[in-house]
Amino acid sequence: MANEKNEWGSNISFLLAMIGSAVGLGNIWRFPYVLYSNGGGAFYIPYITAVLILGIPFLILEYGVGYNFKSSFPKAIRSISKKWEYLGWFLPVAIFMILVYYISILGWDGFYVIISAFKGWGADPNNYFTNTFLQSTESVSGIASVVPVIAVSILAGWFILWFISHRNLEDGIGRVSKALVPLLFIIMIGIVIFSLTLPGAGIGLSQLFNPDWSLLADFNIWMAAFGQIIFSLSLGMCIAFTYASYAQDDSDLVSNVLYVAVANCGFENFAAIGVFSILGYMSLQSGVAVPDLVTQGTGLVFIVYPEVFNVLGGIANIIGPLFFFTVYLAGITSVLALLEPVSVSIQNKFGWSRNKTVTVLCIIGGACSMIYATAMGSYILGIADTFLNQIALLIGVIFECILFAWIFDASKIIPSLNKNSKTLKIGKWWIVAIKYIIPIVLGFVWIGGLFGVIS
Ligand code: PFF
Known about the structure:
single chain; mainly alpha; Hydantoin permease
């Protein structure tokens, strides 16, 4: 059927969908903290190194093989070696687990879009988030009590995901990416400009960028940089592989990789400027030093930001919902990308239609995510986050490198990469990066992590 065809309608859909997949929660709540706590301005040296030796070469590899195989990830592995097909299912399963927890955080955020309009968290956002909203407990009995408001918020996320993804590729993900990704950047730029006008913004920014050069000799900040790039560019999860398998024949893959890297890194640096300007303002108002305000993850978005909005006055009733809505947009375009490799793997394996596959996956995912709607949900989420992000992603990248660079022999795809490239030409440097540099560097990171060097 023509409308079942998995192909992007244009290069711009492909590019914006890729940018949407990369720009997500990690850019807004992870990067500012990582930058600040790993040497500030000095962090740019390991960070840019990680973009150049890991991010760009690895994305070119994922794009290139996806474009050449034009199939799902497990099917591609099967065509390399039949007996390894089961290994190819490891990534779609891991990515589905990431999706289930990622969409749960998105659900929380969706609820905050609404309550931020009237500062529904009251005078003590910390107490509200932990006790009233999450009803958080670490006791196993907490699994028995589903918090209805969280359940509804999470299921709303699944519904939106289903609503977009069950349509054919261009009508769903393609069209939505073309609308939401530019909107996301525009709102973010607006928020950053507003943040820069706040009194105290300079205090936050000088804290953020103040370089601690001595940390450059510390193994940890190099690992933090590689970890950030893997998470932020969504490497090793066969997302780029899948999106590139839908690319039109004349797509300029190499240039697209460069645009995705620039847009993603530009966005997260922008977010860091916004976050620290606001923290500087908060510090000026409250007398609390910026380092005592800095946190990451849910603490930043659901506690520190509401505290800021509480002191911001009337304008917070506009800026607040806008901020939570921006986080939602960033997350939605990423969950679309997280479902896609799983969905197409099942379509390819069982011959199911896109509509049927997406519907079944959203029902299963919605049911699984109810674990995160329980009073013990946020505790389990912390464990899932650590396991999936510190272990599964790293294994994914090393696995794809060995498989595609060594066993499949990526040098075969160089001509097809260079055929349409109007910017960078792929040559020996790329092979050296994907065959040697990436696996060796990440091997160090992994061993470092196993020995507890990663905090
Ligand atoms: N790159 C996105 C983010 O930074 O939030 C989303 C993401 C997708 C993160 C896939 C991790 C991942 F495995």
